[in-house]
């Protein structure tokens, strides 16, 4: 009986050992697969890093180009004024948020807030008025140029007959 037990135990160990060996794939293949996956990940990281660097460089170049771009005086003035108006709005919000705001101070703040808003409206209205003046000037100039061109063509055609 003892012999049968040893034989069964031996068979069980052989069975588990054989199963373990057959279930494992060659380690060389696993190493190659792991190496390839790490290599692909690194390449993707490098690609995304290079794309990020390229986009940052492009953004820097466009910002530099805009900075170097000569702006007309109206645009410079408008941007500076808008920035100042936004700063005033932020100051107004800060002062309104103070805990000890009395009625007199609140009235002064409201007046200054209206004045600040009026500045923005005035600037926008001026731009609209200037655009209308520009359109009128352009139409007038084009009309005068067209009259001169037509008269010159008439003179040329009458002189060649």
Features:
mainly alpha, 161 residues
How would you explain this protein's 3D organization?
The chain is mostly helical and 161 residues long. The protein has a domain at 71-152. It contains 4 helices and no strands. The termini are far apart. The model has no long low-confidence stretch (mean pLDDT 78).
List the helices and strands and how they pair.
Layout: H1 2-23, H2 27-68, H3 73-96, H4 103-159
In short:
The chain has 161 residues and is mainly alpha-helical. It contains four helices and no strands. The protein has helices at residues 2-23, 27-68, 73-96, 103-159.
Structural class by SSE content: mainly alpha
Helical element count? 4
The rounded distance between the terminal residues' Cα atoms is 138 Å
Proportion of strand residues: under 5%
Tally the beta strands: 0
Percent of residues in helical segments? Answer: over 70%
Given as residue ranges, the uncertain stretches (5+ residues, pLDDT < 50) are: none
| SSE series | HHHH
Largest sheet: none
What general outline do the C-alpha atoms trace?
elongated
| Mean pLDDT across all amino acids | 78
What is the alpha-carbon Rg in Å? 41 Å
């Amino acid at each position: 009986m003892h012999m049968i037990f040893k034989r069964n135990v031996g068979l069980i160990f052989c069975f588990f050992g054989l199963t373990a060996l057959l279930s494992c794939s060659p380690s060389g293949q696993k190493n190659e697969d792991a190496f390839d996956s790490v290599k692909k990940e690194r390449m993707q990281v490098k690609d995304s890093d290079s794309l990020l660097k390229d986009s940052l460089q492009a953004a820097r170049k466009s910002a530099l180009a805009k900075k170097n771009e000569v702006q007309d005086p109206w645009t410079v003035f408008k941007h500076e004024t808008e920035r100042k108006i936004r700063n005033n709005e932020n100051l107004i919000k800060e002062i309104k948020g103070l805990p000890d705001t009395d009625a007199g101070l609140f009235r002064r703040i409201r007046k200054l807030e209206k004045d600040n808003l009026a500045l923005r409206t005035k600037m926008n209205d001026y731009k609209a008025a200037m655009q209308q003046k520009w359109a009128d000037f352009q139409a007038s100039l084009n009309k005068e140029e067209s009259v001169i061109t037509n008269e010159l063509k008439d003179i040329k055609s009458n002189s060649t007959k």
